[in-house]
């Protein structure tokens, strides 16, 4: 069984996540798109682990999941703090560093 | 491969849906579809441990966290369609299409061959094999993960913490404030009157009647008054004569007839 279709699917999902990060305005949806990209890379790691016949890829995917969990916790807390002070979850409103 | 060809279109459609739906809750649910399908693909790729972790960590914990924050932020905080940078959306879509084209053609052109397969590596069980690698070759990365998780937990607590700016009101201070209001503004210090209780209607939207027969404004919630859904208490008595006419009993015809009629109805 060739894993090429899995890698192609992973690339497509990664691209969709990229476009989502660039086009969406709601900070939470942008965050979801980042998660989608992480998941797509995980799929590639697991597929290549099968291709090469060793489990290092699965370990890497496992670490990606752990880092993603920690990242989501801190990221959502930051979004909450911004929403509390600025009453908005839009990425365009957090632009104080621009001025 | 059957699972793959069934799930791949579903995943791509759900992922595209995240780009186009207006409400963030719908995006979260579509992301759940993608993640559960990914878990099934992991199972198909001989990774049963990652299958479970994907379901528990991603779909169970991370997505619930997303939904929780959406609830706190407000579900109606939907996207604005205004572009701050002109033409950014079109440029982003073009760049995304180019990236996808490069990735898909690049990956599609290399021939990976049949692949080794994980039957050898998984011979003693997938979880046992993963544990052997995790606690030998990757043990330092594993220990670092604990520091990362503790940092994340402390960071989330610090970010979510809110300093109290005014002292917490106590029962004594509230009582003192109530009496001060009575002294300064004449506000009634006791509890507000309850809503009216009548024989035919006792919901909170009926005002209580004052001794002179007028409705007491303080006895209904201000929200109901603002919405204009407060009932008029005297109107509840308006159709009494109509009802008496319907049961064919004049008001002064004596109680025996109507009492026996009621007993028959019972």
UniProtKB/TrEMBL annotation, chain A:
Transmembrane segments: 6-22, 29-49, 61-83
Membrane topology value: Multi-pass membrane protein
Subcellular location: Cell membrane; Membrane
PANTHER family hit by this protein: NADH DEHYDROGENASE SUBUNIT 4L-RELATED, NADH-UBIQUINONE OXIDOREDUCTASE SUBUNIT ND4L
Quaternary state and interactors: NDH-1 is composed of 14 different subunits. Subunits NuoA, H, J, K, L, M, N constitute the membrane sector of the complex.
Keywords: Cell membrane, Membrane, NAD, Quinone, Translocase, Transmembrane, Transmembrane helix, Transport
EC number(s) on file: 7.1.1.-
Lineage top rank: taxon: Bacteria
Function of the protein: NDH-1 shuttles electrons from NADH, via FMN and iron-sulfur (Fe-S) centers, to quinones in the respiratory chain. The immediate electron acceptor for the enzyme in this species is believed to be a menaquinone. Couples the redox reaction to proton translocation (for every two electrons transferred, four hydrogen ions are translocated across the cytoplasmic membrane), and thus conserves the redox energy in a proton gradient.
Matches recorded under Gene3D superfamilies: 1.10.287.3510
A Pfam family the protein falls into: Oxidored_q2
Keyword Phosphoprotein applies: no
Family per similarity comment: Belongs to the complex I subunit 4L family.
Annotated catalysed reactions: a quinone + NADH + 5 H(+)(in) = a quinol + NAD(+) + 4 H(+)(out)
Gene from which this protein is expressed: nuoK
Protein name, UniProt field: NADH-quinone oxidoreductase subunit K
Organism: Nocardioides koreensis
């Amino acid at each position: 069984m060739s894993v090429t279709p899995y890698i192609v699917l992973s690339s497509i999902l990664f691209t969709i996540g990229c476009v989502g990060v660039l086009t969406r305005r709601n900070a939470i949806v942008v965050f979801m798109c980042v998660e989608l990209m992480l998941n797509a890379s995980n799929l590639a790691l697991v597929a290549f682990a099968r291709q090469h016949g060793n489990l290092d890829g699965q370990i890497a995917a496992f670490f990606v999941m752990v880092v993603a969990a920690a990242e989501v916790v801190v990221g959502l807390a930051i979004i909450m703090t911004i929403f509390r002070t600025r009453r908005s979850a839009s990425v365009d409103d957090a632009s104080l560093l621009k001025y | 491969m059957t699972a793959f060809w069934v799930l791949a279109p579903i995943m791509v459609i759900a992922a595209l849906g995240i780009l186009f739906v207006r409400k963030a809750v719908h995006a979260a649910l579509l992301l759940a579809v993608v993640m559960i399908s990914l878990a099934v693909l992991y199972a198909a790729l001989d990774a049963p441990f990652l299958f479970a972790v994907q379901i528990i960590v991603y779909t169970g914990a991370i997505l619930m966290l997303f939904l929780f924050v959406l609830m706190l932020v407000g579900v109606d905080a939907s996207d604005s369609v205004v572009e701050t940078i002109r033409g950014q959306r079109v440029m982003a879509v073009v760049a995304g299409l180019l990236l996808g084209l490069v990735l898909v053609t690049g990956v599609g052109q290399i021939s990976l061959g049949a692949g080794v397969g994980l039957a050898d590596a998984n011979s003693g069980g997938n979880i046992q094999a993963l544990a052997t690698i995790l606690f030998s070759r990757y043990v330092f990365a594993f220990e670092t993960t604990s520091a990362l998780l503790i940092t994340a937990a402390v960071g989330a607590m610090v970010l979510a913490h809110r300093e109290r700016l005014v002292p917490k009101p106590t029962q004594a201070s509230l009582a003192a404030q109530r009496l001060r209001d009575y002294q300064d503004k004449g506000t009634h210090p006791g509890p507000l009157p309850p809503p009216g209780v009548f024989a035919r209607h006792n919901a909170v939207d009926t005002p209580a009647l004052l001794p002179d027969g007028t409705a007491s404004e303080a006895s209904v919630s201000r929200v109901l008054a603002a919405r204009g859904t407060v009932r008029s208490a005297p109107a509840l008595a308006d159709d009494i004569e109509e009802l008496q006419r319907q049961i064919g009993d004049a008001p002064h015809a004596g109680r025996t007839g109507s009492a026996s009629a009621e007993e028959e109805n019972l």
